[in-house]
């Protein structure tokens, strides 16, 4: 999605009501950010928006990119810099070493990069859904596997074998239970990845 360099566009300050709505949307989509939300989006912060290619909007606090959204209808997606600040706040999958260079070229993430020995999908027998009120009862185990199944259309952070920090973030085009069952096909398309135009965009 952001394979090419992006020219910065003017930032527009957002009304308080819009900021409150975005804050709630962020918490609904990523409940594990709840303990950190006042650090990410202080209530009296001056959040600004910036137009990006392909009808995307980036939300920036001072010179810190936080998240982006396409068409104001799609899921709100974290910028990788936010993911690196709060790595435990987002559902994750892990690719094997062989898939890293392809993901960092903007290629579609395919199932074999996750089902191999170096890949990590949610634990076997993981719950398909969390009960209402149990949204905080999820996370990654010592083996790098998420504790519940992740669903088609859900935002996901992509970790990489042998690396400490996330390398990409995108939306699942196939649920993790289906990836386990089929072992082939696309899993994440149009990811935001390390070194892409969004990562390199200057905000000063």
Structure description:
The protein is an alpha+beta fold and 204 residues long. The protein folds into two domains: 9-83, Sulfate adenylyltransferase (Roll), CATH 3.10.400; 90-191, Sulfate adenylyltransferase. It has seven helices and ten strands. It is globular, with a radius of gyration of 17 Å.
In short:
The protein has helices at 16-29, 37-40, 80-85, 97-103, 112-115, 176-182, 197-200, and strands at 11-13, 47-52, 56-61, 64-70, 77-78, 92-95, 109-110, 155-160, 168-172, 186-193. 23% of the residues lie in helices and 24% in strands.
Features:
Uncharacterised_CHP00451; 5-stranded antiparallel beta sheet; globular; Sulfate adenylyltransferase; 23% helix; alpha+beta; 5-stranded mixed beta sheet; 204 residues; 7 helices; 10 strands
Itemize the secondary structure elements and their pairings.
Blueprint lengths: L10 E3 L2 H14 L7 H4 L6 E6 L3 E6 L2 E7 L6 E2 L1 H6 L6 E4 L1 H7 L5 E2 L1 H4 L39 E6 L7 E5 L3 H7 L3 E8 L3 H4 L4
Parallel strand pairs: 6-8
Antiparallel strand pairs: 1-2, 2-3, 3-4, 4-5, 7-10, 8-9, 9-10
């Amino acid at each position: 999605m952001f394979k090419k360099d992006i020219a910065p566009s003017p930032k527009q300050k957002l009304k308080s009501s819009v900021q409150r709505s975005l804050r709630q949307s962020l918490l609904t989509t990523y409940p594990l950010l709840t303990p950190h939300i006042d650090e990410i989006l202080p209530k009296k912060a001056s959040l600004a928006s910036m137009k990006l290619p392909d009808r995307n909007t980036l939300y920036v606090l001072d010179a810190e990119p936080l998240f982006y959204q396409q068409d104001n209808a799609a899921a709100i997606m974290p910028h990788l810099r936010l993911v690196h600040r709060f790595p435990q706040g987002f559902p994750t999958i892990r690719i094997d070493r062989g898939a890293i260079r392809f993901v960092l070229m903007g290629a579609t993430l395919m199932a074999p990069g996750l089902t191999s020995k170096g890949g990590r999908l949610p634990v076997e027998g993981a719950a398909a859904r969390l009960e209402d009120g149990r949204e905080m009862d999820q996370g990654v185990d010592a083996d790098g596997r998420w504790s519940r199944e992740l669903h088609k259309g859900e935002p996901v952070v992509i970790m990489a074998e042998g690396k400490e920090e996330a390398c990409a973030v995108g939306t699942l085009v196939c649920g993790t239970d289906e990836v386990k069952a089929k072992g082939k096909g696309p899993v994440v398309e149009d990811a935001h990845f390390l070194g892409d135009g969004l990562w390199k965009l200057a905000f000063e």
